[in-house]
Amino acid sequence: MSPPLLTAAALYTTLSLLTLLAFARDKRAATRNQPRTPERTLHTLELLGGFPGALLAMPLLRHKNRKPRYWLVTLAIAAAHAAAWTIFVIVTR
Questions:
Q1: How far apart are CA 30 and CA 81, in angstroms?
Q2: CB 55 within 8 A of CB 43
Q3: For residues 46 and 49, what is the distance between their CA atoms, to the nearest angstrom?
Q4: Minimal CA–CA distance to 16: which of 54, 56, 58, 50?
Q5: pLDDT of residue 3
Q6: What is the pLDDT of residues 63-72, one digit of tens each?
Q7: pLDDT cut 70: percent of the chain above it
Q8: How many whole angstroms separate alpha carbon 69 and alpha carbon 64?
Q9: Contact 21, 1 (CB under 8 A)
Q10: Most C-beta atoms within 10 A of its C-beta, which of 4, 81, 87, 92?
Q11: 19 with 45: CB under 8 angstroms?
């Protein structure tokens, strides 16, 4: 694997872990009636590359499952990343 792809993989992994932890923290705050993490913050983490962590956290932690709009935005972010990587692969061939 080339160094740029290794860097990208490391970033996606790190941001996914951070996003998963942010979901866990928000879920814990929700159950304890404490201040919550804004959805905008969670979506920003997803947009920066943490969407795999979010897609894993949502069913695993049973968090944000009843919010169709949240799911749609998360799926749109994942689709945007997939499209960007597809374009990158086509252009760099």
A1: 29
A2: no
A3: 5
A4: 50
A5: 87
A6: 998 999 999 9
A7: 100
A8: 10
A9: no
A10: 81
A11: yes
Instruction: Please report where in the chains the tokens 């009636």 appear, as a residue.
Output: 33
What whole-number distance in Å separates Cα of residue 41 and Cα of residue 55? 15
Tell me, letter by letter, the H, E, C secondary structure of the chain: CCHHHHHHHHHHHHHHHHHHHHHHHHHHHHHCCCCCCCHHHHHHHHHHHHHHHHHHHHHHHCCCCCCHHHHHHHHHHHHHHHHHHHHHHHHCC
- The per-residue pLDDT for range 48-86, each reduced to its tens digit, is 999 999 999 999 999 998 999 999 999 999 999 999 999
Residues in the chain: 93
